[in-house]
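Ticket #4471: structure export looks truncated?
Reporter: QA, pipeline team
Priority: medium

Steps to reproduce: submit the single chain below to the structure queue and open the exported record.
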Amino acid sequence: MADASARIAALRAYGVLDTPPEPRFDDIARLAGVICHAAQAVVSFADAERHWYKAHVGVDVEEVAWSDAICSYVVENDLDELVVDNLAADDRFRHKGVVTRAPFFRFYAGVAMRTPSGQMIGTVCVGDGVPRKGGLTPAQLGGLHALARHAMALVWARTMIIGPVAAT
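Actual output as written to the record:
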């Protein structure tokens, strides 16, 4: 796993955590759900003990504890992407809160959002309450990667308005 303190410092330098909703991030979540035909979609930032949702569709919470989030596995293993057809049948995830409690994810696909220096600060991910044999098509997965790049461009654009980023 990449250095967690450096990752968290990079994330916090962007000043995006706990900010109000923004239509452009909402659009990214909405498009992720449409592209992947998924009931849930989020733009998630990986803080020290939680995954905070800057934007979310089909999910009624704004954050999930680190221990309950599937995205934690993506971050801890420094993955560019992860697709899991059936979370409830996967020993790595069946115990996670988002699987055992609402929203009862069964399918998950997420891609990394990285700073220009390669620090992973979050994910764009989709999920569904039913397993999905075969996961995503290559086009859908490519679409998620494109949306993650756009989310990072929006994060960067915010810093141009509110001030320079100290650690990336």
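Status: closed, not a bug. The export was complete when the record was re-opened. Leaving a note from the reviewer for reference: Residues 117 and 168 are 6 Å apart (CA to CA).
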